[in-house]
Each structure stands twice: as C-alpha cells, then as structure tokens.
Write a structure and sequence with these properties.
Layout: E1 4-5, E2 11-18, E3 21-23, E4 31-33, E5 43-50, E6 53-59, E7 66-68, H1 77-95
Parallel strand pairs: 2-6
Antiparallel strand pairs: 1-5, 2-3, 2-4, 3-7, 5-6
Length: 108
Amino acid sequence: MIRKKLTGTETGWWVVSSAGRIWLPNGDLPKGSAQFWSLTGKEALPIGEWQEETIWLIIAKSPTDMCSLRWIASQDQGLLKLVGRGIQLVEFYRSHHYCGLLWQQNDS
C-alpha cells in the first residue's frame, strides 16, 4: 500500500483516525472529495473499497467529532469491518513507528 499526498480531487470514504477514535462529522463516516472535507495536503493510504468507492485512511486527530468505533457499529457490517481495519492499521503504525519503514504520524 502506498501513501499519497492528497490533491483534493480524490474521492471516496474517509477514515480519519487516531488513538482508537474515528472522525464522524455529523455522526457519519465522511464520503466525498478530499477537498470538500478539507483533507487536501494530508497523507492518505487507500485501504479498500466499499460500494465501488475507495476507502482512504488518514492518521490524524480532528478537533471535533472524534468518536469510538462503536458509534458506527449499527452501520453495514462490511463497512464496519473496513473501518475497523483502518483503526487497526493506525494502531499498528503507532506501535511500530520506530521500525523505520512506516508512516510518521502527523496529528494535525
């Protein structure tokens, strides 16, 4: 999987996560363009597809709307699994940040 600096034209579902929490503006997983969600310039990693849309992982904190994964447990199980995968990857990168090959966390 290759990280990409977002230009704003990328579209899909956005898993923005840090410290076991996920960004859910208005109580929903964000979907749409990176520009619409003010994610331009952030580092993102495609981690799968859902409903023919890319699911992007961004390791970052949002100043608002950070929730537990349980918040979306009532959503579709396939989507929940992909979001859970994103949170697991965030934890993996955090716990292995001294390994040298992994993503540097940017909490902006």
